[in-house]
């Protein structure tokens, strides 16, 4: 008997160098129930894992479409031969908890599998004769007569007196005869009829299963369990009789059953070769239960491409010794890769795997093809997989931001740093964001502080900044500007609102320090004996020096033309080998604010 429970994944071809297309016969003898076994030559160079599933273990079912230039998803299908115990579904849970140490313990896989075709409707289960309920003590005619009596009760609705539950059809028919408002409320299936099915994926999955005649295993249909061999009467049954006693005899299965997948170590063993602890548990249940039936069957576990993790697939496909590009930045539905030069020949393959293994959260995969050099600090991106839309929505700290990566800059990796800055703001602060971008800091700060002035030179960023202010209903607390950073600083301190500004953020690491000279002489035309609010400035910068803190501090002193500047320096993150991003926070010195700029020139 052969029972199948699986769904083949959709085949997607990939163009690869010709060396990936070479195939050779496998060294192990193929099973008679499987086609000839092949494997890709590159796969064989990796060492075999000692336990658990691996792409370097098992056997491969080659696709007919596989040739020297194309590698399909079916090339990642692996078949493992296991042994399983077939038990009644009512006893499955209890046996699984007792035998757990000897059952299959592979990640993302359950050690319980269904046997297709033997599941019955729970409402019909009482109609079937069950061992131990006295029905097997009668001859065949008496059993048939008892069945007819039970069925007559169901058909004619005579269930009120004998405890059986009316079928849904009979219940609805009886309710319709005495239909009224209260009866309508008590209708058992009203909720199912009136509420539409919202889970479209589940509905489509069921439709596909019914059309193909197969049953999925796992949440995403990434595995299949196939019973390829059952014990024959007189062969393995003798072992069962010796284990469970002479009273054990093979009977025809009645009702639902389950498969308890045994550990891979017991794949070729019989009942007599199972561990003593397993045999003791089975014998104990056989003595307690009068209807316990057991079969030791041989199974074929098939793991498809969808089962394997992203790192496992890339490690198999990329040349040995190459660094696996497993980390990427997520911006909404976009995965942003920074591939090395050695990865570029495989960029389409890497992007396809990243997209497949992160659906539906990731719908687009891009790679930065050049360093940020333009005036607006936008990245040059190449779409490698998925849809080509770079417009997405990012949620950070409960705030929604609309972003177009083709025209504006965004970095999700600075989310922690932005949160650190926000924790230092109070409701009495007035914040100036000199290089705000689409507003990740400005809009978040508007929920805390009194007022925010946001500026950016990029007109596209300003457009999205205004849109995000309205989207988050904070447009009344934010005033937006589109001008050069130096001009923005001077215009702020030339106006009447200069006295209220308490915090200034300058997050443009490549050039922000050069704009600090705009703070020299901001109060030069005002009397020095007055009371003025000096802002707390947070300026960001990059440094490749051996001592990055000292190097960045020196650049700040040079820009302000002031030696005595007390700076609180902090390393934000390592953006590249030997290149640090730093944040310097300092209170603007009074000597700088009242400096005579005419003397500087």
What does this molecule look like?
The structure is a single chain. The model is unreliable at 1-49, 64-70, 131-138, 233-237 and 246-250 (pLDDT under 50). By secondary structure, the chain is α+β, with helices and mostly antiparallel strands. Strand 19 (451-455), helix 13 (459-471) and strand 20 form a beta-alpha-beta unit. Strands 1, 5, 7, 8, 9, 10 and 11 form a seven-stranded antiparallel sheet that branches. Strands 20-19-18-21-22-24-23 form a seven-stranded mixed sheet. It contains 17 helices and 24 strands. Among the domains are: 69-116 and 253-308, Alpha-Beta Plaits; 309-389, Met-10+ protein-like domains (GMP Synthetase, Chain A, domain 3, 2-Layer Sandwich); 412-594, 3-Layer(aba) Sandwich (Rossmann fold). Keywords: Cytoplasm, Methyltransferase, Mitochondrion, Nucleus, S-adenosyl-L-methionine, Transferase, tRNA processing. Belongs to the TRM5 / TYW2 family. Its main location: mitochondrion.
From the structure above, extract its key features:
single chain, 601 residues, alpha+beta, Alpha-Beta Plaits, GMP Synthetase, Chain A, domain 3, Rossmann fold, seven-stranded antiparallel beta sheet, seven-stranded mixed beta sheet, 17 helices, 26% helix, disordered N terminus, nucleus, SAM-dependent_MTases_sf, MeTrfase_TRM5/TYW2, TRM5/TYW2-like_N, transferase
């Amino acid at each position: 008997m052969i029972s199948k429970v699986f769904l083949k994944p959709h085949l997607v071809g990939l163009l690869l160098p010709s060396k990936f297309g070479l195939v050779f016969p496998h060294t192990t003898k193929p099973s008679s129930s499987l086609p000839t076994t092949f494997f890709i030559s590159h796969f064989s160079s990796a060492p075999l894992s000692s336990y658990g599933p691996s792409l370097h273990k098992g056997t491969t079912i080659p696709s007919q479409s596989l040739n020297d230039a194309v590698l399909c998803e079916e090339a990642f299908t692996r078949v493992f031969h296991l042994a399983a115990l077939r038990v009644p579904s009512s006893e499955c849970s209890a046996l699984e908890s007792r035998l757990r140490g000897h059952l299959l313990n592979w990640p993302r896989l359950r050690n319980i599998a269904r046997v297709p075709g033997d599941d019955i409707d729970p409402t019909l289960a009482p109609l079937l004769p069950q061992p131990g309920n006295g029905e097997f003590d009668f001859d065949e005619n008496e059993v048939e007569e008892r069945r007819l009596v039970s069925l007559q009760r169901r058909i004619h609705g005579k269930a009120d007196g004998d405890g059986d539950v009316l079928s849904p059809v009979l219940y609805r028919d009886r309710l319709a005869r005495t239909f009224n408002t209260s009866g309508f409320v008590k209708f058992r299936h009203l909720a199912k009829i009136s509420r539409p099915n919202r889970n479209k994926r589940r509905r489509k999955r069921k439709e596909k299963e019914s059309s193909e005649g197969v049953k999925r295993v796992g949440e995403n249909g990434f595995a299949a369990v196939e019973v390829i061999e059952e014990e024959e009467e007189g062969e393995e049954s003798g072992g069962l009789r010796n284990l469970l006693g002479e009273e054990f005899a093979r009977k025809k299965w009645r009702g639902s059953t389950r498969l308890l997948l045994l550990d891979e170590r017991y794949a070729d063993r019989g009942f007599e070769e199972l561990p003593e602890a397993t045999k003791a548990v089975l014998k104990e249940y056989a003595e307690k239960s009068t209807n316990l039936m057991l079969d030791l069957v041989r199974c074929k576990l098939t793991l498809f491409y969808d089962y394997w993790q992203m790192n496992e697939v890339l490690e198999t496909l990329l040349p040995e010794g190459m660094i696996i590009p497993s980390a990427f930045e997520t911006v909404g539905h976009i995965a942003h890769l920074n591939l090395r030069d050695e990865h570029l020949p495989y960029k389409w393959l890497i992007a396809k795997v990243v997209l497949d293994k992160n659906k539906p959260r990731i719908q687009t995969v891009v790679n930065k093809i050049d360093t940020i050099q333009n005036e607006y600090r936008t990245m040059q991106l190449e779409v490698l997989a998925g849809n080509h839309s770079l417009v997405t929505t990012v949620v950070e700290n409960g705030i929604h931001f609309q972003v177009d990566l083709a025209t504006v800059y965004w970095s999700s990796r600075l989310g922690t740093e932005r949160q650190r800055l926000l924790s230092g703001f109070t409701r009495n602060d007035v914040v100036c964001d000199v290089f705000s971008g689409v507003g990740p800091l400005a809009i978040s700060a508007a929920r805390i502080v009194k007022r925010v002035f946001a500026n950016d030179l990029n007109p596209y960023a300003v457009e999205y900044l205004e849109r995000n202010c309205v989207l988050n209903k904070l447009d009344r607390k934010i005033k937006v500007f589109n001008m050069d950073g130096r001009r923005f600083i001077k215009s702020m301190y030339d106006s009447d609102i200069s006295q209220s500004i308490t915090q200034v953020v300058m997050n443009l690491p490549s050039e922000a320090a050069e704009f600090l000279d705009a703070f020299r002489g901001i109060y030069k035309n005002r009397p020095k004996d007055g009371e003025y609010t000096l802002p707390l400035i947070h300026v960001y910068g990059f440094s490749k020096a051996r001592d990055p803190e000292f190097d960045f501090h020196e650049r700040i002193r040079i820009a302000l033309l002031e030696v005595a500047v007390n700076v609180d320096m902090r390393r934000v993150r390592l953006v590249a080998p030997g290149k640090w991003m730093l944040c310097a926070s300092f209170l603007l010195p009074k000597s700088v604010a009242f400096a005579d700029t005419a003397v500087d020139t």
